[in-house]
Design goal:
Blueprint: E1 2-3, H1 6-12, H2 25-35, H3 38-64, H4 67-71, H5 74-94, E2 102-104, H6 117-132, H7 144-152, E3 163-172, E4 185-193, E5 196-208, E6 221-228, E7 232-237, E8 244-246, E9 259-261, H8 270-280, E10 287-288, H9 293-299, E11 305-308, H10 322-329, E12 333-337, E13 357-361, H11 365-382
Parallel strand pairs: 2-3, 9-10, 9-11
Antiparallel strand pairs: 1-8, 3-4, 4-5, 5-6, 6-7, 7-8, 11-13, 12-13
The chain binds adenosine-3'-5'-diphosphate and magnesium ion.
Magnesium ion binds near residues 168 and 171.
InterPro entries: DPNP, Inositol_monoP_superfamily, Inositol_monophosphatase-like, Inositol_monophosphatase_CS
Function: Converts adenosine 3'-phosphate 5'-phosphosulfate (PAPS) to adenosine 5'-phosphosulfate (APS) and 3'(2')-phosphoadenosine 5'-phosphate (PAP) to AMP.
GO molecular function: 3'(2'),5'-bisphosphate nucleotidase activity; inositol-1,4-bisphosphate 1-phosphatase activity; metal ion binding
């Protein structure tokens, strides 16, 4: 659900009134906490947008290439590394007066091996072209070592102390043949401060700007979701339109809900979510799309429920959920594990969870949790 621009104007042109007396502490601390991430938010949006530009360039060339080139998966790999290098470069450059710690999915190990020189050179050119396309940067092009170093900035362990950026340079993958239903990917960037996600940005190049339910195939795509703790969630177009505030679906009747789940059945049990949907009386078929674009779509009310139940033993990584979770919670939703426990991003690279990750609005959550536990119990009893 999109909200008019009036609230946005309040946000962007906000002026703190001259105060002759001490303000109520809750208001004052809110202003302090939200304003302290303005610089980081601008840097994160710039980083994710530029990385998305790099990914779109790779996707465009893949979709236009001959069949033989399409079978070659290396451009997709180039985009993953390139995206991470660009985000790392932009954050370090824009926030040069802050200590820099980045927890990210890729590392340069394979690129340093014999035979990887050509791939590294392609990444270097792609990264430099992308950085040069941003007119505010007048820096010398990165060397191959500079690119490797930018990628390896992402080796931080994160944790409960200090600030750490958390990056999935490409969540899911760029389509290499044609963009089909469900083919979504995201550049997902979040900031942890003392173990808590305080800011998140999700760039979703293939996600329609219009709600999924009304989108026609010809509609424009490319969404940039951003959220700061206490400030709400906004959606811009990746082409640079004005941001609009978004909120999660307000529906209270689960029968009217539609739910998001992974396109890949190997990533989340479609059987379990089908059992849950049946108990809730959900009528619509599940919407199956890749990546954290699901969180973005949920934050603007395209659907009302997100379900993710990986196989037992799979450990979820923080970069797969940090940005998406704040995008949803700042839009008024709840994100938790399958028992309703909040997600804890302060324990290094992994999340400790009961069964999986779920999200919905506040009204639907109690019946959702009940349906989940019943379905889990039934499944266990049938084994
Ligand atoms: N067996 C598995 N179970 C659950 N998630 C998995 C998985 N194997 C990979 N994934 C994760 O699922 C993410 C994609 O999410 P989704 O299913 O929502 O599209 C992948 O992100 P990457 O593509 O960044 O590695 C990966 O981290
Ligand atoms: Mg991922």
């Amino acid at each position: 659900m999109y909200i008019g621009l009036s609230s946005l104007r309040i946000r962007t042109h906000f002026v703190i009134p001259t105060l002759n007396h001490k303000p109520k502490s809750s208001i004052f601390s809110f202003l302090n906490s939200s304003m302290s991430y303005n610089k980081e938010l601008a840097a994160a949006k710039k980083a994710a947008s530029l990385a998305a530009k790099l990914c779109q360039k790779v996707q465009k060339s893949l979709l236009q290439s001959d069949v033989q080139s399409r079978l070659d998966k290396s451009p997709v790999t180039v985009a993953d590394y390139g995206s991470q290098a660009v985000v790392s470069f932009v954050l370090e450059h824009e926030l040069s007066d802050e200590p820099f710690s980045l927890v990210a999915e890729e590392d340069s190990g394979d690129l340093r091996k014999d035979g990887a020189q050509d791939t590294l050179e392609r990444i270097r050119v792609l990264v430099n072209d992308t950085i040069a396309s941003e007119s505010t940067y007048s820096v010398s092009p990165l060397s191959a070592d500079g690119v490797l170093a930018a990628i390896d900035n992402g080796r931080s362990e994160g944790g409960p102390v200090g600030r750490h950026w958390v990056l999935d340079p490409i969540d899911a993958k760029i389509a290499s043949y044609q963009v089909c239903e469900g083919d979504q990917y995201a550049i997902a960037l979040a900031l942890l401060d003392k173990g808590r996600v305080v800011l998140g940005v999700l760039a979703c190049p293939n996600l329609p700007l219009a709600p999924l339910a009304v989108q026609t195939s010809a509609g424009p795509t490319g969404c940039l979701f951003s959220a700061v703790l206490g400030e709400g969630t906004y959606m811009d177009s990746l082409d640079g339109s004005s941001p609009v505030k978004v909120i999660v679906s307000p529906i209270e009747n689960p029968e009217e809900a539609s739910l998001f789940e992974s396109y890949e059945a190997a990533h989340s049990s479609h059987d379990l979510s089908s059992s849950i949907a049946k108990k809730l009386g959900v009528k619509a078929p599940p919407v199956r799309i890749d990546s954290q674009a699901k969180y973005g779509a949920l934050s603007r009310g395209d659907g009302a429920i997100y379900l993710r139940f990986p196989n037992a033993g799979y450990r979820e990584k923080i970069w797969d959920h940090a940005a998406g979770s704040i995008v949803v919670t700042e839009a008024g939703g709840i994100v938790s594990d399958a028992a309703g426990n909040p997600l804890n991003f302060s324990k290094g690279n992994y999340l400790d969870l009961y069964k999986g990750i779920i999200a919905s609005n506040q009204k639907l959550m109690p019946s959702l949790l009940k349906a989940i536990q019943q379905s889990i119990d039934e499944k266990a009893a049938s084994l």
